[in-house]
Specification:
It contains 31 helices and 30 strands. It is α+β, with helices and mostly antiparallel strands. Among the domains are: about 170 residues, Multidrug efflux transporter AcrB transmembrane fold, CATH 1.20.1640.10; about 90 residues, Alpha-Beta Plaits; about 150 residues, 2-Layer Sandwich (Multidrug efflux transporter AcrB TolC docking domain, DN and DC subdomains); about 180 residues, Multidrug efflux transporter AcrB transmembrane domain (Multidrug efflux transporter AcrB transmembrane fold, Up-down Bundle). The strands form seven sheets. Strands 1, 2, 3, 4, 20, 21, 28, 29 and 30 form a nine-stranded antiparallel beta sheet that branches. Strands 5, 6, 13, 14, 15, 16, 17, 18 and 19 form a nine-stranded antiparallel beta sheet that branches. A four-stranded mixed beta sheet has the order 12-7-24-23. α11 packs parallel to α13 and α13 runs parallel beside α29.
Length: about 1000
Amino acid sequence: MNIARASIEKPILTWLLILGCLFGGLWGFSSLGRLEDPAFTIKQAVIMTGYPGASAAQVAREVSEPLESAIQQMGEVETITSVNQPGRSLIEVEVKSTYDGDTLPDIWTKLRAKVRDAAHDLPPGVRPPFVNDGFGDVFGLYYAVTAPGFSDGEIHRLATWLRRELLAVEGVADVDLSGLPEEAIFVEPELAVSVAKNVPPQAVVSALSAANSESPAGSLDRGGRRTLIEGPAGSDSVSDISGLSIGVAGELLNLYDVAHVYRGRVEQPSMILRHDGAEAFSFGVAGLAAENIVEVGHRVDARLAELFADIPEGVELSPIYQQHVVVEEASNAFLINLAMSVGIVVAVLALFMGWRAAVVVGATLLLTVVGTLFFMAVFAIEMERISLGALIIAMGMLVDNAIVVAEGMQIAMQGGQSSRQAAGETAGKTQIPLLGATVIGIMAFAGIGLSPDATGEFLFSLFAVIAISLLLSWVLAITATPLLGHYLFKRGKAGGAGAYDGPVFRAYAATLRGAIKARWLVIGGLIVITVASFAAFGQIRQQFFPNSNTPLFFVHYKLAQGSTIRETAQDLAVIEEWLGARDDVLSYTTYAGQGASRFMLTYSAEKPNPSYGHMIIRTPNIDAIPALRAELEAFGREALPQGEFRTRRLVFGPGGGDPIEARLSGPDPVVLRRLGAQVIDAMEGASPDILDARTNWREPELVLRPIYATDRAQSAGISRDDVAGALRFATDGISGGVYREDERLIPITVRLPRNATSDLRDQPVWSETGQNFMPIEQVIDGLDFEVQDTLFHRRDRVATLTVGADIPPERTAAEVFGQIRAAVEGVEVPAAYTLEWGGEFESSTDAQKSLSGQLPLSLLVMVVISVLLFNAIRQPVIIWLLVPMSVNGVVLGLLGTGLPFTFTALLGLLSLSGMLIKNGIVLVEEIDLVRAEGLPLREAIVVACVSRLRPVVLAAATTILGMIPLLGDAFFVSMAVTIMGGLAFASVLTLIAAPVFYYVFFARKDRADRVAQAPAL
C-alpha cells in the first residue's frame, strides 16, 4: 500500500489527522501537568526509634541491630543504613531499583510488619519504632513567615490557621510547618524548700501528670437516650498549674509553695530558623501528584491574597522557593525556544529549498510537535525540564523524514511528474527505510528510558517523548507532507534542467570521485583522526549531572560535635550580617539544627544535629553565584575558623552526598577512625583539590558518667534510675506531662532552677525506702569522664565510616577522583575491613551500569533492524562503521568550549548515533536503488550521494542551528554542544566516508559482476 499517494487521493483522512494533531496539541498543551523536574520515586523509608538514656553504641547494638536483622530478610531491600546517637536510632531502608513506585506501598506495609514484629524483642525502655515513608513529598511552594513582636502562642496560632486554610485549597496535598518556636511549662522547685519539706520531684511530676489529663467518665442512659459524661476540665493556665495541690506525708501543699512555675522557650530547640536575619518559621505546600503544580500554585497565591486582609499587620510572607513560578517561566521559555527552533528550521529550508518546501516541512514539523503534546497529555507525561528538552533534542530528527519526502517529491515534480506520481514514487522508495531508521533512532534512547534506577526514572520522559515524536514524524511525513506538497509544489516539464546541476552539487560530485579514487588514504586519515579523538576524549572533564540553573546556592556549617544549637545559630548570624550588606543577594534563609523541608525533588536535607547549620541564598541570576560564592567562602572561613564552612551549588538530577566519598566498613570503631585518618591523609597528599575532608562520625564527645556505688546505694534504697533521674532533674529536666492549649500539646518540664549553682555531686536524690533526701555523692563513687562516639553509622549491619570531601567549583568530581583514587586504594586495609567508593563516582557508575544493562538489547534491536532493511550484511556494516567516528566532532566541540562530558552529553552522543545511522540508512538505500538501475558502481555512488546531499546537509544544519536555544540552558548546554559538534563531523562521515566504504565493500563484487556479464571472446 502506498500511503503517500492515498493521502492525496483521500485527503479527508489526512486533514482529519492534521486537524487532530493541531487541536489535540492545543488541548494537550493547556491540560498537561507541569513540573520543574521529572518525578522520580524516592525509594527510601526511615525507621525512628527512641531509647532514652542509652549511648550510641548501645542504641546500635540493642535497637538498630535487631531491627536491621529483621529488615534484611526482605528480598526487596537494597541497602540498610543507620545513624545511631545517644537515645535515638535512625534507620534508612533503600529498596532495589527494579521496583517501581506502584509496588512501594505493599513493600512499606511489609516493612512495617517486620519492624512491628521485631519491636517485641527490644529492651525495656525502648519507644515503639515509627516508620516514615513520606520522603517523596515535595513542598515546592515554600515560604518564610516573620512576625516581629508577636508572642510564641500567637505565632503558633497564626501558623495553624495558615495551614488549615491552605489545606482546603484544591489540589493541595499537605502543608509542612517548621521552625516554630518551641515552648514549655517549666516547674522549678526551690531545692531548699523541697528538701526541707521532703517533696521529691516525682511527687510534683505525679501531680502535674493528672492536672490536665483526659479520662472517660462514662455515660447515662435515661429514657432511651444516652448522655455522655465528660471528665472535669483540666488546668488551662499557668496560674492554675501553680495552684495544684501536692500531698506529701499527710500534708497538703500548693505547688507555688515549693516551686516557681512559668512558661518560656526551650533553651535548646530542635531548630532555629531565620529569614533575612529575622526570626521566622516556614511553611511548605505540596501539591497532589495528579495536579498541575502551576495551577495549584496560582490557587495558593490567590488564597493567600484573600487571607492577607486577615493576617495581622507586621506579619510578612516571603517566598523562599516558588516552584509554580519556576515551572511557568520554564514553559514560557520552552515556547520561545520552540518558536526559535521552528523559525530557524523554516529559514534554513527556505534558503536552500525555496519557500514552498520550507512551508511544507515547517508545517509538518509544527504538527509533529503539537501532536506530541497531545499524546503526552494522553499518556500523562508532564511538561518538565526533561520532556521539554526532549522535544528540542528530537527537532533535528523530526525534520529528517519530512525533508527526505519533500525533497524527493519536489525533484520528481520538477521533472514533470504529477504530485500523485511523485508522492507515490518517493514514498515507495523511502517509507520503509525511513521507518526502520526512525525505530533505530528511538532505540538509541531506549537504554536510558528503560533503565530501572533513579536516573532512568528521572530521564524516562526523554525516551517517551522522543519515541512519540519520531513515530509521529514518520506518520506525518508520509501523509501530511505529500498532501501539502500536492497543494504547494509546482510541476515542471520533462527534460528540463537537472535538479543537481548546480555548482555545489558538481563540486561535491568531484570531491566524492576524488575521495573514492584516494579511498585508502581517506580511510587511513579517518582511522588516525578517530584514534586521536578517542585519546583526546580522556582530556575532557567528566561530570555526572551539571549544576542547576536555579539562582540558589547553599551554605553548610558544622561546629565540633557536641556544640549547642544556640552556638551554631550565633555563628551563622555573622554570615547573615555579611550577606545583608550585599547588593547581589536577594534573600537568605538560615537553619540551625537541621536543613530545610524538601522544596525540590533533588534537594536532600542533612540529618538533625545541633552543631549543624544551613543557609539557602538566592541571587538575582546564576551568573552572580560564582563570584559571591568565592567571596563568601573566603569570609566564612576567616570569620568562623572554629567551624567547617562550605558552600555548595544545587545540582540537577538524582544523587546526593559529597562529590568525593570513601566508605570504610569493619567491626572496630577505633580501627575505622584510624583508617579514616589515613584515607584523609592519602586524599590530601594526592590532590590539592581536596577540600574539607571529614568523616561522618565526626568528633568523639566527652561523656560524664556517675560511678554507681552498688552496696551503699542499695542499702539506702536508691537505684540507678533514681541517680539518673536526679541528674536529669538537675540538668535537662524531667517530663511532667503536657499542657493542652487548643490543639497544641506543650510539654511540662520539672527541673532545677536555672540560677542554681550547686555542684552535681551535691544534688540530692530521693530515697523511696527512707522517704528522705540524701546527697548523691553518698551513693556514687564520683563522676568519670569517658570518650564516646555519639554518631555511630552502620551500613548493611556493619559499622561504616564515610570519608567525604568537597572540591573547588572549577573542578569536577571525576577529575579529582582520578587524582586520588590510586593513593586511597593504596591504604592498607585489614582483612576484616573493606574500602568502597561512594559519592558521584558511585552514582555515575551505578547509572552507567544500569544503562549498560539495557544497551545490549537496544543495540541488538538496532542491528537486527538494519540487517532486515537491507536483507544483507555489508550495508549494515558500512553504516555501523561510521558510529565510532561520531566521537570526533564531539571531542572537538567539548574541548573547544571547555564543557564537561555530563550525563546529558551522553544523551547527545546517543542521539548523534541515532541521527548518523538514520542518515546512513537512507544514503546506502539510495545507492542500492541507483545501482539496481544498472549504473556502474562508482557512478551509482556519485549519483545517489549527490541526490541525498541536500537532505543530509539540511537535516544537519537545521538540527545544529536548532540547538542554539539550548546553549543558554545549564542542564542541556553540554548535550547541545555534543550534538552540534558531533553532527557537523557526522555529516562529513555520511557524505564522504559512507560512499568510500561502500565502494571498498562492493568494488570486488562489481568487478566480478562486470566480468561475468562481459561477452565471451
